[in-house]
From TrEMBL:
It holds the Pfam family DcpS_C. InterPro entries: Histidine_triad_HIT, HIT-like, HIT-like_sf. A motif (Histidine triad motif) lies at residues 97-101. Residues 5-114 form the HIT domain. This is Histidine triad nucleotide-binding protein. The active site is at H99. It comes from Candidatus Dechloromonas phosphorivorans. GO terms for molecular function: catalytic activity. It comes from the Bacteria.
Length: 116
């Protein structure tokens, strides 16, 4: 999709530190890492968010989750990790190309959310 940041990374028009790639998905380091390991895993095909994903996206969505442990272990998170998929306005999704954050490292990542 034109003017989509992550589509530009898929197309190689914007650089990224790619840590895994296959025909369907791309994983690269987050530019502003929040933990020792912080990787974004995206479908190469533009899907805006989980709110717009459809039945034809089931395989690629499954692949993102199925590859998460391999990616996390390879990046230095051998003992678990957290997957976060911010979605839409309430989920405070900033980049409107679906992406799974994989966050981890040697230490536990902390509480899931703070109660407000
Ligand atoms: P979200 O709030 O879930 O949409 O997260 C967007 C994430 O994209 C943030 O963690 C940003 O640090 C990350 N990000 C933004 N631009 C880039 C980029 N050019 N390369 C890698 N990560 C990026
Ligand atoms: Zn896109």
């Amino acid at each position: 999709m034109i003017d989509c940041l992550f589509c530009k990374i898929v197309a190689g028009k914007i650089p990224a530190k790619v840590v895994y790639e296959d025909e369907d998905i791309l994983a690269f380091n987050d530019i502003n890492p929040l933990r020792a390991v912080h990787v974004l895993v995206i479908p190469k095909k533009h899907i805006t968010s989980l709110a717009t994903a459809s039945a034809e996206d089931v395989l690629v969505l499954g692949k993102i989750l199925a590859k998460a442990n391999e990616i996390a272990v390879g990046q230095g998170s051998p003992d678990g990790f957290r997957v976060i998929i911010n979605t839409g306005r309430v989920g405070q999704q900033e980049v409107l190309h679906l992406h799974a954050h994989i966050v981890g490292g040697a230490e536990p990542v902390g509480p899931m959310l703070k109660r407000i």
